[in-house]
Amino acid sequence: MIPPQFEYVKPNSVAEAVSALGESEEAKALAGGQSLLPLLRFRLAYPDVVVDLGELAELRGVRDEGDAVWIGAMTTHYDVVNDPVIAEHCELLAMATRTVADPAVRHRGTIGGSLSHADPAGDLPAVALALEAEFLISGPEGERTVAAPDFFEDYLTTTLEPEEILTGIRVPKWEGWSFHYEKFARTAQAWAIVGVAAGTRRREGEIAEARVGLTNMGPTPMRAHAVEEALVGVPAQAGSVRAASATADQGTAPPSDVNGQADYRRHLARVLTERALEQAAGI
Amino acid sequence: MTIAPEDRQLGLPRLRKEDARLITGQTNWTDNIQQVGTLHVAFLRSPVAHARISGLDVSAAQEQPGVISVLTGADFGEEQGSLPCAWPVTEDMVLPEHPPMAVEEVRFVGEAVACVVARDPYTAVDALEMIDVDFEPLPAVLDMEAALTEDADLVHTAAGTNKAFVWPMSNGDVDAAFDGAEVVVTRRYRQQRLIPAAMEPRSVVCSPDGDTFTLWSATQIPHILRVMLAMTTGIPEQKIRVVAPDVGGGFGSKLQVTAEEVLTLLLAKRLNKPVKWTETRSEGFQTTHHGRDQIQDVSIAADADGRVRGLKVDLMADMGAYMMLVTPGVPLLGAFMYPGIYKMDAYAFSCTGVFTTKTPTDAYRGAGRPEATYAIERIMSELAHELGMDPMELRRRNWINHDEFPYTSIGGLTYDSGNYEAATARAMELFGYDALRAEQRARRERGDTVQLGLGISTYTEMCGLAPSRMLGGLSYGAGGWEHASVRMLPTGGVEVVTGTTPHGQGHVTAWSQIAADYLGVPFDDVQVLHGDTQVSPQGMDTYGSRSLVVGGTAVVEACGRVVEKARKLAAHMLEAAEGDVEFSNGRFRVRGTQEPSAGIQELALAAFTAHDLPEEMEASLNAEATFDPENFSYPHGTHLCAVEVDTATGRASIRSYVAVDDVGTAVNPLLVEGQVHGGLAQGIAQAMFEEAVHDAEGNLVTSTMADYLVPSAVDLPEFTTDRTETPAVTNPMGAKGVGEAGTIASTPAVVNAVVDALRPFGVDDVRMPCTPERIWRAMAQAGAGGDTAPGTPTSLAASSEESTAAGTTQTGETGGEGATQ
Amino acid sequence: MPHIRVTVDGVRYDDEIEARRLLTHYLRDTLGKVGTPIGCDTSNCGACTVLMDGMSAKSCSVLAVQADGHEITTVEGLASNGTWHPVQRAFHENHALQCGYCTPGMIMATLDLLQENLDPSDEEIREGLEGNLCRCTGYSNIVKAVRTAAAEIRAAESAPTVMTASGAEEVPRQAAGEPRRPMAKGGGTS
């Protein structure tokens, strides 16, 4: 499997990268390459220019910004998993990232690459959604910030214009919350059939608030709003979690494919949501 | 063998001689062969399952810089011949023409329609995109049962049918066995299509030298390949040298004469340059033959006390689009094994071969025998359930007792030796059967989300392929013998040349142990050569767990002949009569004396100098032997599997797995254990993970390793393995073969465990692979009293409602309500 | 064509290469380092695993141009003066390979795993190798080999003598459990 021919550009700044991407309709940004390289090898993509973001140190790293954590788009999964700021303030992200692919892929794959690829079976989009991350985008017109639900538009499609790049995300600190990511795949390497990112804030014996993001339950990552609403103020007990989780597949549009048919995915979403919430809430 | 027990190499867990190069990257895979001037070929492959080629324009590709030649099937014409099938199982078997490159029609996705030869692989692949092909679609034929109906679309129009053959056999009065039976259990099992997925992709390099050709290939069968290349292309056999260098696994997938091997040879001949082709993984998944893919209708008849009376098996076997080397014979290798280790009065078997527009099937680890073992071991557990009997107890009541060997089975084979009681006792002890049953009861009683299931497989298999006479009786196109030559070198070293062709098994190490003992020389003094028709001119290669039993025995016999030659020379040097000279631990002595003595390694120098040889002795200490076994060998064993099923998600996880195998005498227990482990992994993979899935148009959906789920270390359990040793009596070492045992035994053990866990839900089958979704569906639907075991269908177009395991049970006096509780 | 400078198994190379050339093809076809095989096209099998700046990477999913300025270690670069790396030795002594095709990748992934965690449980070993497929061994002996190698390296580390810096004696740079390279705080320079 051999990629098609392309020109290669390695910009030294975000501005240069944006300008390189703007020079051709068919230009493609290369982050860690762990999704793009297989696409190129299968000739499912024919970029005329590949813009390698690998040298952009400014896109790499994690920064504590007070009420939020900034994560550079080119931060590798490996670095996300091992970062102390993320461990302290975004444990869900570290937890989910640990389940992405395998160690070698995590060394090279990046958070920005995963989010921009926007595969609904990927683990990180649903996490970004559940954590209400902001997406920081640079383009020819300057910078813009979009909320997670607005970033993911459709299957493998984001709000990014061809000449824009995702420079990072900003994740609010969820003080007083606890989270869990429950992934269900047939083998260790397989994509999630369904994944659930869940978080709760407990107040005495109650669940004060909850967040639930769903992986692979539609063309984009989804929030299980019905579950979240049903959990507000309920006792932090198995019964109430179970009742709320029964609505986990509401409003979803799961695919039917070789890994699972839609009705099974709906069932899994309910079961896994319950399990993820129980873990998150310590029930 | 005349060697003191403490000096014996046989039976020692010797570390492998093979490893040094493999762990340091000093390897010689076919794709590593880089010759000056090598041209690279890439194939354009059919994107459709069935079509007429109505137009093919290669002119643009031909004009690309760096492109040497672009060729179509028509360009190869008559020269490419037809790929061989060596096993016409019946006289009237349909054997369609199979041009290596399609000429008029394509019949599976991936069939080659053109090729580009270029200076480098990048250029070749780029130029493929410049080729224009017009495909005029023809109907895909995907479902075996539909393919056999009267107005079915045809894979091969000229044949007038999709039915390739019907092959029946029977023994005993089957009607009587079933008519008088108190219990009859009938089931339909599906052996899903599998992709062998050896880690090394196929690769071929062919280098011309005048009118002779050296062809390196990632093959299990260099010797057979050489014969078949000559027969297919008309190039004289003596002009072809085939080399199997380091070969990275085969599992049957490299027991083949492939289109790419033939075409690479023809290209080298045509262009008079070395030509190389290496498949990509997804290309290989589409074009390297697949395995299994059978529908098994099985009925078993028994008395109320569990005594089995008879067995009926009606098989449909998917050939795919063409007959490859042994495609039609694979299901018949299982024909004799459906009765397993059990005594019964009557047995009837019939197999119908069916053409479909899919990749051809052929040998995959176990080849026919895993399917047979699956069916009998699954239905024995079903019968036990029907009778309300412990599944192990039912087996005990029916198996051949150790004092009944040799035993001629109802399948017509004579099992030479075995001790099912001993292997089972050891397995039960290691497994902790009774404690697990108690835990299972407790989990059932408290309605635990996680249920426990115990699965049993008490298997035997036939291997050590094979007595040539018996192969002839089955219309196989070759013999089953194996060849070895042993040469004592002047400096005392030993060269063993074997006709077997290892691709991971460790023949170099094991054969060194054999030669060391039978010649009385140090293990390190033995060099084993193989896999090159110029070095090892005679051989039948490696498959069917035959190498040790047949090829190893040939080494033993050749060593014996060398010793006899050396004895003659020793007698001459010791000035004694030959009959008075004894051989032990590598030295010859006159009976009753210690000194003087003559070592076989010193005698090698004496033979080489030839200064003082006895009358009529030639100046060499070497010998050849060709061994043709009188019978198959019959490894057996007891495998026990405990599975936990999360009833909320349907996920099954193996909690413990015990395998006690009896492979006869173990030459090297380390290698035996490795073979068992790997076999278990593949058998478990069939039970739980792997399936080649096609869509409604006949595209292979699982065409990459991202979709076809070869399990990783995380997905497999730790295995508990042990052995009992009941030597085979049909070869001097007592070996039985071990390459396929683990795969054959494990699949039914796992599925029996899954089904056992789900009994309270009324489930009596889950179709393989037992994915979480299938288990969930089986639970949901069995409770409603319907058919069991649907799930993600083989064809994506089919609905999730598809039912697959139409089970019926007629019960006699024992009562019962049918297939489900 | 882009120009790259890369160090492979201690040797520096300067090359003009096509931008689309995969690192694995660069290693095998340009440098002749065929010890690293290719097993798939989706980065699932891990046969082509090498170390890039000490961390495992699947060389089929990296462009050679991305290796510019980096250091690559392949299985060919582990033994030193004929002395095998403890991981190589452990694979041999535990019969952790049969056909050997996955072995280079398996060994490189093991090195990465042991740099990360020098006292892994069996479960951690299996997880550490989840990106490397083997069709022959059923993994049991591979797990055993990794466990053995870890113990041997731990013992060597606690031994009083300082080991040489040769490849064969390479030992993890940090103690078990600690991440190998703590992330720099902040977003780097801009």
TrEMBL record, chain A:
SUPFAM superfamilies (UniProt xref): CO dehydrogenase flavoprotein C-terminal domain-like, FAD-binding/transporter-associated domain-like
Alphabetical list of PROSITE patterns matching this protein: FAD_PCMH
The keyword RNA-binding appears for this protein: no
Keywords on record: FAD, Flavoprotein, Oxidoreductase
Domain FAD-binding PCMH-type residue range list: 1-176
Identification of the protein by name: Xanthine dehydrogenase family protein subunit M
Automatic annotation (TrEMBL), chain B:
Low complexity: compositionally biased ranges: 789-812
Keyword Oxidoreductase among UniProt keywords: yes
Keywords, in A-Z order: Molybdenum, Oxidoreductase
Stretches assigned to the Aldehyde oxidase/xanthine dehydrogenase a/b hammerhead domain: 24-139
Highest taxon listed in the record's lineage: Bacteria
Keyword Oxidoreductase (UniProt): yes
Pfam families referenced in this protein's UniProt entry, alphabetically: Ald_Xan_dh_C, MoCoBD_1, MoCoBD_2
Region Disordered, annotated ranges: 783-821
SMART domains (alphabetical): Ald_Xan_dh_C (SM01008)
PANTHER family reported for this sequence: ALDEHYDE OXIDASE 1-RELATED, XANTHINE DEHYDROGENASE
Annotated protein name in UniProt: Molybdopterin-dependent oxidoreductase
Higher taxonomy: Bacteria, Bacillati, Actinomycetota, Actinomycetes, Streptosporangiales
TrEMBL record, chain C:
Signal sequence coordinates: none
Membrane keyword on record: no
Keywords, sorted A to Z: 2Fe-2S, Iron, Iron-sulfur, Metal-binding, Oxidoreductase
InterPro entries noted in UniProt: 2Fe-2S-bd, 2Fe-2S-bd_dom_sf, 2Fe-2S_ferredoxin-like_sf, 2Fe-2S_ferredoxin-type, Beta-grasp_dom_sf, Diverse_Oxidoreductases
Pfam families per record: Fer2 (PF00111), Fer2_2 (PF01799)
Domain 2Fe-2S ferredoxin-type: 7-55
Annotated stretches, region: Disordered: 159-190
Domain [2Fe-2S]-binding: 74-147
Listed SUPFAM superfamilies: 2Fe-2S ferredoxin-like, CO dehydrogenase ISP C-domain like
Name this polypeptide is given: Carbon-monoxide dehydrogenase small subunit
